[in-house]
Amino acid sequence: MAEFTQERLGILNAAYARCIDNDEVEAWPAFFEERCLYVVNTAENHAAGMEAGVIYADTRAMLHDRVSALRDANVYERHRYRHIVGQPFVLGIEDGAASVETPFIVVRIMRDGATEVFASGRYLDRVVEGADGQLRFARRLAICDSRNIDTLLAIPL
Amino acid sequence: MSHSDTREPRTWEPGLTRVPYWLYRDQEIHDAEQRRVFQGPTWNYLCLEAEIAEPGAYRTTFVGDMPVIVARDEDGELQAFENRCAHRGALIALDDGGQTRDFACVYHAWRYDLQGNLRGVAFQQGVNGKGGMPPEFRMEDHHPRKLRTASVAGMVFGSLDEDVPPIEEYLGEEILERIERVLCKPVEVIGRFKQTIPNNWKLYMENVKDSYHASLLHVFFTTFNINRLSQKGGVIVSESGAHHVSYSKVAHQPQASAEYSAEKLRSDMEGYALADPSMLDGCDEFGDGVTLQILSVFPGFVLAQIQNTLAVRQILPDGLDRTVLNWTYLGFQDDTPELRRMRLRQSNLTGPAGFVSMEDGAVGGFVQRGIAASRDQEAVLEMGGGGIETQENRTTEASVRGFWNAYRGYMEI
Q: A53 and B197: CB-CB below 8 Å?
């Protein structure tokens, strides 16, 4: 039986944020199960039950495609993020999966040096333990507080 | 030095193949656009009928800078009026929308009905026989500006101008047909997003109308054969050039066209593949093989079908060098779960994080910054000649020139 301690969930989130912020996004899909759901949506849409996301991926392979588009295909200005991730709050544990809500703030650092708050919100997660003993996201909804996206969203939240 | 010598250059030769850069950076132009274009004899997208389906339902929106309430009244009629109290000018409605019997301004509690008529003035008779409005004050003399409304394929448009032509005439038969082709049955809103982009609104509208850039800028379009200029397709330009449709048909086989190979395009990435190609799985839901249709209505409306993603965009200027895009993603009420899932996956192509649209949100800013010191220089729009005619190819800037033809007409410039 998997243990979803505050410490383990905290480490999972810290590793996730570090992976993105240190520009190691090639490792980002590995935080997810093979069959997973990663959606960036707004609080307003989420509350209204609207499913379409700014980003919508329901396989780990689709997350790999996000990374390859980011690296090779899309045109945008270079920038970085800094995630500040709050305390994970366990909402419940059922069928070997933990429902967890975790607040985040993402600061964006643009090429010209501007640093600004880019997004705040909460992760609504379903966390499971894989056969290898690692915690992974079966579902991670990044629910943004604002419904405004400044210019573009290239790097995942 | 005389006064005229110190003024910034502000000339524009007749014609459509040159666009002076000062047009994107000029406060007087911005102000004139509000009056002549957005509040002029044009139709502006307000919302979807589905969003105000029941009597008493309303949404708040904008026509250019102007805040607007659009509501369905007790008789089921569409109403739109300026979101500004006739008393001191405060917003009447603060929410994005909802359900109500009437509207009350929070400042002094003046009350309006769903048609925008003033129905109540707090303490109109004063208190204890003292104060109050003068006896000659008549509520019917005071109300926010009202808009004419019209509905097309479930979309609500509004106009501030009494003499605007009927919307069917304004759009023309070909544009109307292409709207009805997509919005052919009851829709459901599946997501709303706002995107703020760092450039003048006209740069975004030009980009929407520019069928030349699409397969050059967007790797996803070219590499995955979603849109190549060598595919069957064309540009429809309305008579005055105001509105346009560009479209292309599916090409399931990889299209090695000689022109594309010769250009050695960045956007044509051999060997670039998706780990999960199901993202691009789609179906021919309109039965005509058209997999991409971008449609614009002057001044600031876009309806786009990219594969099975359906979205409307409302384009609003927010000062000289900022533009707000209000995206509404749509499905149909009778979508099967499989079709809905296709739409959700393909929505990765569009919006602020879209594999395609991400770049459209960025390039306008590149232009806005590029022209910072070049008010007296001009953009060149000669691709496909100098005309604005409908044609069966998309290697042309005809629809961009069409925009400027309409713009010059409304602006009398």
A: no
